[in-house]
Amino acid sequence: MADKKTVCVVGHKNPDTDSICSAISYAYLKNKIQGDDGNKKYVPCRAGAVSAETQYVLDCFHFRQPRYLENIGTRVKDMEIRKTPGVDGKISVKDAWEFMKNQNVFTLAITDSGNQLKGLVTTNDIAKSYMDENDSAIVSVAKTPYRNILKTLEAEMVVGDADAALDKGKVIIAAANPDVMENYIEPHDCVILGNRYESQLMAILAGAGCIIVCLGAPVSRTIQHMAREHGTTVIVTKLDTYTVARLINQCMPIDFFMKSDDLMTFGLNDYTDEIQESMLKKRYRDFPIIDKQGRYIGTISRRNLMGVHKRELILVDHNEVSQAVDNVENAEILEVIDHHRLGSLETVNPVFFRNEPVGCTATIVWQMFHEKNVEIPENIAGLLCSAILSDTLVFRSPTCTILDRQAAKELAGIAKIDPQEHAKAMFAAGSMLRDKTAEEIFYNDFKTFDNNGLIIGIGQVTSMSQPELDEIAVRMKPFLEKQYTDKGLDLAFFMLTNIIDEDTLMLCYGKSAGDLVKNAFGVEVKDNEAKMKSVVSRKKQVVPLIMDALNRDQDV
User: Fold this and answer.
1) Please, what are the domains in the chain?
2) CA–CA distance from 496 to each of 236, 294, 445, 502 (Å)?
3) Which among 531, 445, 502 is positioned nearest to 16, based on CA atoms?
4) Residue 555 pLDDT > 50, yes or no?
5) Distance CA 109, CA 297 (A)
6) What's the burial of 395, exposed, middle or buried (CB within 10 Å: 0-12/13-18/19+)?
7) From CA 414, how far away is CA 46, in angstroms rounded?
8) CB distance 232 to 253 below 8 Å
9) CB 287 within 8 A of CB 300
C-alpha cells in the first residue's frame, strides 16, 4: 500500500487545554472513521508550547505532547522529487552520458559508497569536455581507470593491472615510421598503434606506459614479455585507430568534470517559499536534495515548484488567520471545528465547517463521536472532559451550555474521574505562575484579532489565588506596554481572572484603550486597569463587547 498522506489536526498558537485535547481526540476520531484502508493519516499537532495545566492533563491520561507544527507551508518533501540514482565518480564519461540519456535527465549526482553527495555533472559539462581543446595529457591528468578504457573500447588487457589507472603521460597516435616514433614518444605515454611489431617494440623501448593495439591485432609473446619487463600495459581492441582516438577522452572518469564547490542543496524539510528565491538566483536546471545525514535523495527543478502539493490541514478551536499556524494561507484546509466567532480565515475551496455556540470545542468533538457511532476510549474521554472543565471554568463561564454539562458528565464517567476534584488538580498545576517569567505568563494564552485592519491582542491568565494574581499584575503592566510596541498592536489587553470569585482585572494599553474599556463594560479605568465583576470569559464577555464598541466608534 502506498504511504498515507498526512493531515495535520491543529489548534491555535499559544494553545490551551481545549486546543490540544480536541486536536488529539479529533485526529483519533478521523482515523477511526476512515479505517485501516484509508489513504490519509490524521496527526494531532500543536502550534505552540503546552501549558502546565495541559501538560498535567496529558500526563494524567498518558499522552505525549503532539508534534510541534511551526509552519504549514509546503516543503521540499511535498514536491515531486526526481529520484535519479547517484553514480560512482569513477565511471566513464561515456557511461555517464548513456545513463543520463536512459534516465532522461540533464543533471547527474556523483555519490560515494555511503550515498553522500560529492558533486554534480550536467549535460553541458559533458558537451563542453568535447568542444574544448584539451591537451593530449588530459586523459592521464584525469587519472583514468584502465577499467574505463577496457569497457569503452570493448578491449582486452593482455599485460597489466585492470585496477590501475592511466595517470601519467600524454596520448599519441603512432602513425609514423618506428625510427621517427622514438623522437616523440616519452616515458609513460599512452600510444595508440596498429599491428606492426616494430612500432609496438619501439613504443615499449621508449618507455610508453600503455600501448593500445587496434583492429584486434595479435600481440606476440615477445612483445608481451618485453612489456612486462618495462612495466608497459598492453591493451587490444577490435576498433580502428580513428575510433579509438575519438573514444579515448570518453574513458575519463566523470568526477573529473563534476562541480563540487559551493553546491546549492536543499533538505526535505526546507520550505518552498524560502528556497524559491535561491532557485531563481541560480540558473541551474536541477538542484540536489539531501537528507539530514547528507545522503543524496534526488533532484528538483524550478518547474517542480508549480506542481507542489499543498499540505492538508484541519483547524480546531479557532478560525482566525492571526491565531493559526504560520503560512496557513498556503495550506489546503479541509475542515474547521470551532466554537468561537467567525474570524478572518478564507479558503480557496469549500470546506467542512462546524461552529457551534457551546463552551468548548471538545463538546463538539464529543457530539461527533456519537454521530459517527465511535466508542470513546477512556483516555480520550479524559482529555475531552478536561478540556470542557478548563474552557468553562468548571461550568462557571457564561459560555457554558447544558450540552457542555451533559458532555462532561458522560465523559467523566467513561474516564472514571470526579470532575470537581480533577478540575482542582488541573487548575492547581496550571496556577504555579510565580516561578514563570512575564513572557511565559503573557503568551500562555494570548490571541490576536483583526477588526477592520485594527490588530487587537488579548491575553488571559486564570488562578484560584487572588494574591498570586495581584503579584502577576505588577509584573504584567510594563510587559504589556512592551508587547504593544514590539508586536505592532493597535490595542493590547490582558485579563487576570479569579476563578473562585468569578471576576477579572483588565489591563489595557494603546490609544483610547481605557475609553474603549469604559464604554464597552461601563467600568472606571485608572492607571490602565479596570476591575470587572462577573467577567471570566474572553470569548463571550470580552471580545464581542470590545468589537462592538470599536464598530460603534467607527460608525458614520
Assistant:
1) 5-73+310-430 (3.90.1640.10), 80-131+256-270+285-302 (3.10.580.10), 143-240 (3.40.1390.20), 438-553 (3.10.310.20)
2) 91, 50, 11, 11
3) 445
4) no
5) 10
6) middle
7) 26
8) no
9) yes
Q: What is the 3-state secondary structure (H, E, C) of 222-269?
A: HHHHHHHHHCCEEEEECCCHHHHHHHHHHHCEHHHCCECCCCCCEECC
Which residue, chain included where needed, has cell 458522560?
410
User: 488 φ, ψ to 5°?
Assistant: 65, 35
Q: Please, what is the Cα angle at 459 between 456 and 465, to 5 degrees? A: 155
pLDDT at 556 over 50: no
For 301-305, the CB contacts below 8 A with 24+ separation are: 301/82, 304/79, 304/80, 304/81, 305/79, 305/272, 305/276, 305/279
pLDDT, tens only, 298-350: 999 888 877 777 889 999 999 988 889 988 988 899 999 999 888 878 888 88
Query: Higher-confidence residue: 517 or 539?
Result: 517
Q: Which region among 443-447, 457-461, 488-492 has the lowest average model confidence (pLDDT)?
A: 443-447
Instruction: Quickly list DSSP for 119-171.
Output: EEEEHHHHHHHHHS---TTHHHHTTEEHHHHHHHTTEEEEES-TTSEE-SS-E
Angle separating helix axes 402-415 and 378-391, nearest 10 degrees: 140
Least confident of 66-75, 180-189, 473-482, 516-525: 180-189
Buried b (16+ CB within 10 A) or exposed e, 183-213: eebeebbbbbbeeeeebbbbbbebebbbbbb
The total number of residues shown for the chain amounts to: 556
Average pLDDT, the chain: 90
Which of 128 and 106 is assigned the larger pLDDT? 106
Question: What crossing angle do the helices spanning 197-205 and 221-230 adopt, rounded to 10°?
Answer: 10
User: Which of 520, 525, 532 has its CA nearest to residue 509?
Assistant: 525
Mean pLDDT score, 138-158:
95
Residue 133 in this model has a pLDDT that exceeds 70: no
